[in-house]
Write a structure and sequence with these properties.
The protein has 152 residues and is of the alpha+beta class. It is 47% helix and 10% strand.
C-alpha cells in the first residue's frame, strides 16, 4: 500500500482538541464530511512534490515533522496563518516552476517515493495533486481554517 498524505480542514476547536490529545485526530478524521469542498488528499505524490518544491527553492514543507513510515502516524495541525502562507506560496508558484526540476533519473537516484518517475503518467500525477492541494489550501485559507495533516 504505502503512505499517503492527507490534509483535512478543521475548526479552531478541533485544532485545540487535537493539540491537547493527538488521539482525538483519528476519531475526528472519520467524522469529517466535507464532500462539497476541495479535497486535500495528495495520495503518494507527497515525496515527489517535496522533492520538486525543494529543488525549485520554494519554502514550503508539506511534510514538516511527520514520519511517512510510522503507519497511522501522529497528526500535525497547521494554524490558519500557516495555511494562508502555504496557499499564497502555492498560488504564486505555478506547477511549471516545479516541472522544470522534474528529472526521473535524478529522482530515482535520490530514492524519491514512489518509484514511478519514469512512467508516462507521473508528471500528470504530480501536477494534478499539486493543483488539488493548492485549491484545498486556498479554500481553507478563505475560510480562515486550520488544517490537520497526517500520513494515512
Amino acid at each position: 500500500m504505502g503512505p499517503v498524505l492527507a490534509f483535512h480542514r478543521i475548526s479552531d476547536e478541533d485544532a485545540a482538541r487535537i493539540t491537547a490529545d493527538a488521539e482525538a485526530a483519528f476519531d475526528l478524521i472519520d467524522a469529517i464530511d466535507r464532500t462539497d469542498e476541495p479535497a486535500g488528499d495528495i495520495d503518494k505524490a507527497w515525496d515527489g512534490l517535496r522533492y520538486l518544491l525543494e529543488a525549485a527553492g520554494i519554502d514550503l514543507d508539506l511534510i514538516r515533522d511527520l514520519d511517512p513510515w510510522a503507519g497511522d502516524g501522529e497528526p500535525r495541525v497547521w494554524t490558519a496563518d500557516e495555511v494562508s502562507t502555504a496557499a499564497r506560496t502555492m498560488t504564486s508558484t505555478p506547477f511549471t516552476v516545479l516541472d522544470a526540476h522534474f528529472d526521473p533519473e535524478v529522482m530515482d537516484d535520490n530514492d524519491v517515493y514512489p518509484d514511478i518517475w519514469d512512467t508516462d503518467f507521473s508528471r500528470d500525477f504530480l501536477r494534478e495533486h499539486y493543483e488539488g492541494l493548492r485549491s484545498f489550501l486556498t479554500f481553507a485559507a478563505e475560510k480562515n481554517s486550520p488544517v490537520l495533516t497526517r500520513f494515512e
